[in-house]
Design goal:
The chain is α+β, with helices and mostly antiparallel strands. It has helices at 12-28, 33-54, 107-114, and strands spanning 2-9, 62-69, 73-80, 117-123, 126-134.
């Protein structure tokens, strides 16, 4: 099993740094670039929501990200100490047109469209979101 564990600060620069490290890691384990871009987008949406809502823009908070790949599935666990927020309790409905809605609000919808499974738990004052993506053989390069 390949894994990457990181602690990042709750600011946009830390997200960019994390994304570069994740891209290098995924390249090293031969995951297809198109899959990595999608996974990266899903993680970015979760991290932005944590920074914007759970931490209300406070850039001194910690976010923990664990990335695991076992050859068949990617599992990403993201932990924050914000107020309890169960991603699975958010309505799945979205307006048909992006022009009828306010800016934003599409992040969770994007994450759901990319990932195969999303789990949430509250553990020791942490929100713990686990994202799962099944990997097909064509999504791995040699």
């Amino acid at each position: 099993m390949e894994s990457l564990n990181m602690e990042i600060n709750s600011n946009p620069e830390s997200i960019r740094n994390f994304q570069h490290i994740l891209l290098d890691f995924c390249s090293g384990i031969c995951l297809e670039k198109s899959l990595v871009v999608k996974i990266n987008l899903a993680i970015e949406e979760i991290l932005i929501n944590i920074i914007s809502y759970a931490y209300a823009g406070n850039d001194n908070q910690k976010i923990f990200v664990d990335f695991e790949y076992n050859g068949n599935q990617i599992k990403i666990v993201i932990k924050d100490m914000g107020p309890p927020f169960n991603i699975n309790e958010v309505s799945e409905s979205r307006p048909m047109s992006p022009f009828v809605d306010k800016i934003g609000g599409w992040g969770i919808h994007i994450v759901r469209s990319i990932m195969d499974k999303i789990e949430y738990t509250r553990m020791n004052d942490y929100n713990v979101v686990s994202l799962f993506k099944n990997v097909n053989s064509y999504e791995v390069t040699e």
